[in-house]
Amino acid sequence: MPVKPPSFRPSYLPPPEQRVRAYNRERGSARERGYTRKWERARKAYLAEHPLCVECEKQGDVTPATDVDHIVKHDGNPVLFWDQDN
Q1: Helix (H, G, I), strand (E, B) or coil at 85
Q2: Which pLDDT tens digit goes with each residue over 26-75?
Q3: Which helix (H) or strand (E) holds 45?
Q4: Integer Cα distance of 81 and 29 in angstroms
Q5: Does pTM top 0.90 for this prediction?
Q6: What is the CA radius of gyration of the chain?
Q7: Are 17 and 25 in contact (CB under 8 A)?
Q8: Are 76 and 61 a contacting pair, CB within 8 Å?
Q9: How many CA atoms lie within 13 A of 17 on its CB side?
């Protein structure tokens, strides 16, 4: 069976695991980013009102929704974060 050749990674870049750990340290925890109990209640209410996956419906599939995601990235903006249409 063929073996995948090694991929090129410049020597000045840290390994992927280190980059991921650094990114996660900088972005903060979910609670620090606004995903509090208030968000959990709003998420639960949204899923009760919209039980089907929006993206799956666009493709003609009927799939129960399990996640609530912002359409436009909020980047900590509370107005975008709590906008019901987002």
Answers
A1: coil
A2: 988 888 888 899 999 999 999 999 999 988 999 999 999 999 888 888 88
A3: helix 37-49
A4: 16
A5: no
A6: 19
A7: no
A8: no
A9: 0
